[in-house]
Structures are given as C-alpha cells and as structure tokens.
Amino acid sequence: MMKGHGWDRSRLFPHGGNQMTLHIVGGFGLGGYEAYPGVFGAFAGFADDAKVEAGWLQLPDSPGIGFEAQDALYAIMKQMG
Which domain holds residue 15? Predict the structure, then answer.
C-alpha cells in the first residue's frame, strides 16, 4: 500500500518499543522505530548486550527476537513455569 502511494520502506518508522518491533523493522527493511525501553517492565527492554549508538540499535546476531537475551525477562518467564 505504501509503495502504491509513492513511499519507500525506509521512510516508515512504526510506533513500537521492544525487541519484537526491532526485528520486524529489520525483517521488513523499514527505516526504524520509536523505542521506549523501561516503560513496560522487562518486555520493553533490549537484549542485555544491546548498545544504542548515536540513537541507533543494530539487530543482534543471536537467534530469536531478543527476549531470549534479556536475563531479567528470562528469569520471570522461568518462574512462571
């Protein structure tokens, strides 16, 4: 739809804020997304080894969508069973 209206994917920055959105943006080749780590508890953060540099965050090389690389979230999920 966007292409049909003359928009390039790189101009799309969806409202998001977590690891899943980071991977969706990377997978579809979008320009970026709005992030707000810390707002929604453990689900809102980035992978423990993630580094924001000059406002940008690179996709990690680890498998998954990033939740797997968040020790605090992993501990919560493990407690839930």
Answer: 7-80
CA dihedral 49, 23, 18, 9 (to 10 degrees): 130
74 closest CA partner among 16, 15, 19: 19
Prediction pTM value: 0.71
Q: Is residue 29 part of a domain?
A: yes
Identify the residue whose tokens are 């390039």.
8
Domain count, the chain: 1
Q: Can you give the pLDDT at residue 1? A: 83
Q: What is the pLDDT of residues 4-25, one digit of tens each?
A: 999 899 998 888 777 788 888 8
Handedness of CA 65, 75, 53, 16 (dihedral sign): positive
